[in-house]
Amino acid sequence: MFSIGVKRRSLVKLPKGVTGPSKVKVGFPKGEADQGNIQKAIWNEFGTRGGASGGGWGGPIPERPFMRNAMRDNRGKYRQALRASAAKLLIGKTNLRQVMAKLGIEAQGDIQAEISSLSSPPNSPVTIALKGSSKPLIDQGEMRAAVTWKVDE
């Protein structure tokens, strides 16, 4: 899970009334995703050695950093979205909760797109035979569908 947020700097005084959450958690936030999807996400994001360390059907799972890729590849887009929201925030046309929610929705879509497009490293021949697909991060789409966001209070 990743957090995207606004740093509050002491040099900048926000106008009265501009308060609210400064982070949004994206991926599989606690209380928002079931343990099975969290475990699959961890196995795939960081890889496993197989056997007792976990990993699908017992074999090793190579690292497929779909969340880190999505966050790294879209960092500039998130910064730009925060900059664009700053003016609206200062004149009262939005609030921090709305800004963080919009950012969460955007990042959720980016992670889901990375899950859909990631093709390397490929599945092993055994995995392809067992699940009937060569898509590394998608079997029935449960993990992809479980990606979500939560504004951090």
Describe this structure in words.
The chain is elongated and about 60 Å long. Strands 1-2-3 form a three-stranded antiparallel sheet, covered by helices on one side. The protein starts with a strand and ends with a strand. The protein has helices spanning about 35-45, 65-90, 95-115, 125-130, 140-145; strands at about 1-5, 25, 150. By secondary structure, it is mainly alpha-helical.
Summarize the topology:
Blueprint: E1 2-5, E2 23-27, H1 35-46, H2 66-90, H3 96-117, H4 125-131, H5 142-146, E3 148-152
Antiparallel strand pairs: 1-2, 2-3
Task: Please tag this protein with its features.
153 residues, mainly alpha, 3-stranded antiparallel β-sheet, 3 strands, 9% strand
How is this structure best summarized?
The protein is mainly alpha-helical. The protein is built from five helices and three strands.
Helix-strand string: EEHHHHHE
Helical content class:
40-55%
Task: Note the overall shape.
Answer: elongated
Radius of gyration: 18 Å
Number of strands: 3
Mean pLDDT: 82
